[in-house]
Amino acid sequence: MMSCNSTDEIRMDDLSSDRDLSHNSLEENLRTVQTVFGDFQSFHRQLDDFPHSFQLENQDRLQEDGLKCIRGCLQSALKVGYKTPVETARARNLLAFVLFCLKRPEEALHETQLALNSEGEHLNVVSLANKAVILWREGQRGKAQDLVLNLLRLKNEEPGFDYVLVKAKAELAYSYTRFDPVSYPLAQRLFGEVLHAAKEPELSLWKFGLAFTRRRLLVTVLKPGSADHDEYRDVLSLFLDIVENCESHSLKAKTYAELAWLLLMPRSTDLEEELRKAAGLDVLQACEKALDLDKNDHSVLWKCGRHYRNRGELEKSRQLLERAVAMRQTSKGYHNLANTYKVIILKSDLVYEELAPAFIAQMSRSSSTDSYCSTSGSHLPAMGPVGSSNGECKEASASTPVTSNGECKEASTSTLVTSNGECKEASASTTQPAYQSLDKSTQEAFAMWKMNRSHVKGKQRFSRQDPRVEQAITTLVKAVKISEWGNSPAIFDLACIHEELGELAQARSYFEKLLSNEHRLSMCMKISVFEHLGLILKYMAEKDTCQNDKQQLLGESQSMLLMALKTASELYSKSPTVKGQIKYIWHSFSTLMEALNDKEHCESKKCREKAKLFQLIMDHTQSLAFLQEIAAIEPQKANDPEYLKLCIENHVALQQYNEALIFVDLLQCTAQSQRAMELFDDARYVHKVGLLASQQSLLRNCPNFKSLFKGIFNDYVAEQKLIATSSEDTDTGAESDLAKGDDSNKKGGGTQKATWDVLILHEDHAEDANLSDTVANILRDACGLKVTRNDDDVMPNKLAMEGVLSVMKKSSLVLVIAGQNKTSRKLRQLLTYAARRETSVTLLVNDGHVPKMMKTHRFLDLPVELLHVTSATHGDNFAQDRVAAICKLFGFLTDIDFGHVCEP
C-alpha cells in the first residue's frame, strides 16, 4: 500500500543538518529526530487553514496503479486542453500531488508552477500550499516557509481572500471525485459545505459537482433498498435547477448528459416513469439537448454515445463515440466504443435473433437481481443459460432449469424450478413481471446488455474471420493501456472476447490480472471473474492430456467456482428475493453439481458435498434434506462432527435454534468434543446459538427459557475459572482472593461454591437503588439467575464493608451500576476489589460515566427498553423489543456480542 500521508516520511537529508549523525551519541540523535519531527508537525499546522492536496483523506488507499491511472487521465486532458484557467489549474494541482506520490518531485513542482502561471491563478491557494509542502519535504525549508508566510500575509491583507479559501475547498472536492468510490462521500460533504458560501458562476458549477457526486453514489450503492426514491428525486431536482438557472451552455450540456444517466438508473419501472415525468423528457431527449448545447465536449459525446447504445441506436452511438476518442483519447471513451462495436456485431448476426427472446425470458425469471447489480464500474453477473457445466446446453434453451443434482431438464421459457429441483408451470404474469411494461427497443437493449457481458454457452458469438471483432479487440486494448491497467471493466470485456473466441490462455491471463487487483473490483464483477475463470480452467482441464495437470486445473477450477458462489452469497444474503435465485443465475452451481455427480464417490459422500453446496447458496432446507439422506444411507455417519456441524449451521440459518441445540448436545458428546467445537470459526458460536434459542423461547413463553439462560451463564463462569487457573497466580492473601473473586476457599479440604450468580453494586441514592432493583428482577425473572445487591444478603453482625466483600467473594460476576457523575467513597472502596476481578462489568445509566477503576473492563449503556420496567410490567409475557433488550444485557454479562449473533 502506498501512502502519501506523511507525517509520513522524514527524509534522511532532513536529519543530517551540518553533522553526520552516525558520529553523534544516541541521545543527540534522538534529540535531532524529535526536533525535525516537531518542526515538521509545526509546519503542517501552519497550513491547516489553507486547503491543499496533501490534506486529502483516504490517501492510504491510493496504490501505485491507481495513481498512474489518475496521472494518465489528467495528462491526456491537459494535452487536449480545458476551457477555463480554473479547470486547468485544478487539473495541474492534482497532477502535481499524484506525481509527488509517485516519487517525481521535480515534475510535481513544474506542474505546480504551471498552475500558478495560469491566467488569474497567482492566488491559487492549493497551488501555493502544495508547493510549500513539496519544497519542505524536499529539504528546501527556507523557500517553503516563505510561501507559508506569503499565504498568511494574503489571508490578512488580500480583499476577498475568504472566498479564495472557499474555492480551494471546492477544488479538493473535485479531487475526491477522481479517487475510488470510498472517497465520494467526502466529495459530497465538501460540495455541501462550499455551496453555503457560493456565488455565481461557482454556484452552478459546485451544484453540478454535488449532483454529479450524488448520482455516482446512487450507482455505487450495494445494499438492496439503501438508495430510496427520495434520493433519486433530490438529485433530479439539482440537475433541473442547473439547466433552468445556469447561463453556461457547456455546463448545461454536461448536466443534460448526467440527467440522461440518472433516468437510466432506476430498476423500478414506477420510479423510472416518475423521474421521466418530473424531468419532462426521456433519456434520448436529454441526450439531444446535451448535444445541441455542446457538440465538442468529450464527456458529453461519450456519455450520450453510451446512452444511445443502451437504447438500441447503434449507428448514432458509434458516430458519437468515434468523435469522442478522436477528440480526446480516454479509457472510458475507447471502452464504450468497443462495446458498441460488439453489440453491432451481435445485432447483425443471426445469433442475436435466435437468443434475444430467450435472454429476455431468462432475465425476467431472475429480474429481481437487476436492482442490486448496478454498481460503479461493475458488470452484472454472468447470465447465460444455466445447464450443463461443460458449456453445452444439450439442446436446451436459455431458460433450461437445473435440478438439484445438476442435470438439465427440458423446459419452456415459462417453466420455473423449485429449490428441490421440481419443475412447475408458471403463468406469463409470473415469468415476466418486470418487463411487461417495457417497449420492444428497451427489451432488446437489456438483452444486448446482458449478452455483452456473459458467455453464451454452446454458442459462438465471435469469430476471428470477422474484421469487426479485431476492431473491437484493438479498441479494448487501447482502453486498457491508456488506463495503465486501471480500467477493470475494460479488462473484463477483453477477457470475455478472448474466451468466446476459444483463446482460453489469453482470457485466463486477463482474468487473473483482474484478481491480482481484487480490491478494485465491485462485488458483482468479482462473482463474474471467479466464475469465468473457473469455467475456463475446467475447459482447459478437459483438453489436457497430462493427468497431474488435469487434476490441478480441476482443483483450481472448483476453487474459483466456489468463490463465485461464496461471494454471491455474501452480496445477496440480505435479499430474500435474490438469494433463492443464485443457483439459476450463475453457472458455478450447476457446474459443481455436475462434477459431484461424475465423481466416483460413495453416495453418502456425494450427499455431504451437495449439502455443503446448497448451504453455500443459502438453500438450507435442501441442504438438510441431503444430510437426512446421509443418515438414512449410513446411520453411523450421523455422529460425525462435520455432519453435526452442518446440521447446526443449517438449523441456525433457518432460525430453528432449539433443533440446533439438539445437534450441539450430540457434538459435545462426541469422543473429541473439544476438538469438534474448534470446527466453528467463532469460539463463542455455540453460546450464541444458545442465546438465540433463549430469545426465541422467551418470546414464545416456552417453559425452558430460564434453563437455557442459566446453562449459558454456567458455561461462561466455568470458562472464566479455567482461564484463571491456567494463568500464573502471583497474588497472596485474603484480600487478593476477594479481589479475584476466587470462590475456592478451602474448608476441610472442600470447595465452597458461589452462592450468587450476580452481585450488583450501586450508589446509595434512591434512583440508583431502584435501577439496580429493576435490573436484578429482570435477571431473576427472565434469565433465571440468582442475583443479590449491595447489602441485601450481608450476614448479621458483620461490618458493612466486610459483609459486602464476603458476598462478592461468593458471587460469580459483579455488575456495577454507574448512574452518577461522581463515585461515592463507599462505592470506590468496593470497586478497589471488584476492579481486580476478570468477571466485573459496568452498566451505564442516564449517560453515567465509567468509574476510573473500571475503565479496563467491559461496559454497556443500559438498553432504554429496560429503563422503566417494573414488577408489574415484566413476568411471563414479554414484548419483542424488551426481549431483545434482555438478551442484549445477558449477552453483555456473558461476553456475547448480541448485535452480531449468528445472523441467518
Automatic annotation (TrEMBL):
Gene3D superfamilies: Tetratricopeptide repeat domain (1.25.40.10). Signal peptide: none annotated. Coiled coil: none annotated. Residues 737-746 have a biased composition (Basic and acidic residues). Residues 385-410, 728-751 are annotated as: Disordered. Residues 387-410 have a biased composition (Polar residues). It comes from the Eukaryota. Pfam families: TPR_8. This is Uncharacterized protein.
